[in-house]
């Protein structure tokens, strides 16, 4: 099978994603021309997924297309931005039509769900690597930053972190689960749902925000550091899904929730005076988030259990560390 680069782009990517009136020139010219609304700031993010590093070799192409976009949408969500446009740089070992059509379908479904247009990209041959750049906007000076937190702010996380790490372990045959739990957890790794709507709403409530991609504890610590403070997380408040708890037990579930990766949830801080308004106006049961702790003056990130500090290594809870 041989497919020219032109045919490939035309067939799989020209109509991939939403149609938007603000795309003056999209795929087909040397560069895209985009109409940025007045009074808005442009928010840009780019992320690459490399086969064998960010997803297992042989992953379902629809999942690769979905995730390549989802991880970027999650970055925009963390800034409180609304996504508008994306560029896609694809490096492919070969132009396999069934792979390309599934990949494009996975990308397009998520793009359309967020009214995002694919406006350009690049296609090269080589080891499988997918780079997506997303562009979105936010009202001037209204973006959420990692650095806006203060000691005393309440700390929250969306969703149930840890699911995706378990899902990946199931994908890789490192973890077994009952059928229904396995399906749920695999889906959480393969098709993460970036919290774009929540991020936009949080502009009115949050003092700081970060997306959770490398483990909740580490990413919360990054938010704390950027805000010039520390983080205290209450172990018992860390939300875990029933499916995860059933599969690995409550203890290991919380550990995965704190240290697993690939969650693409939002971790955000809220000034104490704004907490009641947040809880009333964005009901946690409906929006899917929970309070997990606070920001504090002392640097570092601690997990407290019954008042005692637990020791976690980056790779997980260290059961054998002697207290210092
Ligand atoms: P150039 O040689 O100028 O880089 P290309 O032949 O690479 O042009 O691309 C032609 C058009 O197709 C450009 O508008 C480019 O943005 C778009 N394009 C190329 N690859 C992709 C892709 N994987 N997804 C979306 N658009 C693409
Ligand atoms: Mg090119």
The CATH fourth-level homologous superfamily of the largest domain: PurM-like C-terminal domain
Parts with pLDDT < 50 across at least 5 consecutive residues: none
Largest sheet features? 7 strands, mixed
CATH topology of the largest domain: Phosphoribosyl-aminoimidazole Synthetase, Chain A, domain 2
Name of the top-level CATH class of the largest domain: Alpha Beta
Alpha-carbon distance between the termini? 63 Å
Shape: globular
Q: Could you tell me the strand content as a percent range? A: 25-35%
Tally of contiguous helical segments: 11
SSE order and pairing:
Blueprint: H1 5-12, E1 23-25, E2 33-34, E3 40-50, H2 61-79, E4 82-92, H3 97-113, E5 117-125, E6 129-139, E7 154-158, H4 163-171, H5 179-190, H6 196-202, E8 206-212, H7 216-226, E9 230-234, H8 242-248, H9 250-259, E10 265-270, H10 272-281, H11 284-287, E11 289-296, E12 301-305, E13 308-310, E14 312-313, E15 316-317
The chain binds adenosine-5'-diphosphate and magnesium ion (MG).
Adenosine-5'-diphosphate binds at residues 5, 9, 13, 27-30, 88, 90, 118, 120-123.
């Amino acid at each position: 099978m041989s497919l020219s680069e032109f045919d490939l782009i035309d067939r799989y990517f020209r109509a991939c994603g939403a149609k938007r009136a603000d795309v003056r020139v999209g795929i087909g010219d040397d560069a895209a021309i985009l109409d940025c609304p007045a009074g808005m700031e442009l928010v840009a993010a780019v992320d690459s997924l490399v086969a064998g590093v960010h997803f297992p070799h042989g992953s379902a192409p629809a999942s690769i297309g979905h995730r390549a976009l989802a991880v970027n949408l999650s970055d925009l969500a963390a800034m409180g931005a609304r996504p508008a446009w994306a560029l896609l740089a694809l490096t492919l070992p070969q132009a396999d039509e069934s792979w390309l059509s599934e990949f494009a379908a996975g990308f397009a479904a998520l793009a359309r769900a967020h009214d995002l247009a694919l406006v350009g990209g690049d296609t090269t041959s080589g080891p499988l690597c997918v780079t997506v750049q997303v562009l979105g906007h936010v009202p001037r000076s209204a973006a959420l930053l990692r650095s806006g937190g203060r000691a005393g702010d309440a700390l929250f996380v969306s969703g149930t972190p840890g699911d995706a790490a378990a899902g990946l372990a199931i994908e890789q045959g490192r973890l077994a689960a009952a059928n229904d739990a396995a399906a749920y957890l695999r889906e959480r790794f393969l098709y993460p749902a970036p919290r774009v709507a929540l991020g936009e709403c949080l502009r009115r409530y949050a003092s700081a925000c970060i997306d959770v991609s490398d483990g909740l504890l580490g990413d919360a610590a990054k938010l704390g550091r950027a805000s010039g403070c520390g983080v205290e997380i209450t172990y018992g408040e860390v939300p875990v899904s029933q499916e995860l708890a059933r599969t690995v037990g409550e203890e290991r579930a919380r550990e995965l929730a704190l240290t697993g990766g690939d969650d693409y949830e939002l971790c955000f801080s809220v000034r104490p005076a704004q907490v009641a308004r947040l809880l009333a106006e964005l009901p946690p049961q409906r929006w899917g988030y929970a309070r997990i702790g606070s920001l504090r003056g002392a640097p570092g990130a601690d997990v407290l259990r019954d008042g005692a500090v637990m020791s976690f290594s980056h790779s997980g809870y260290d059961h054998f560390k002697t207290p210092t």
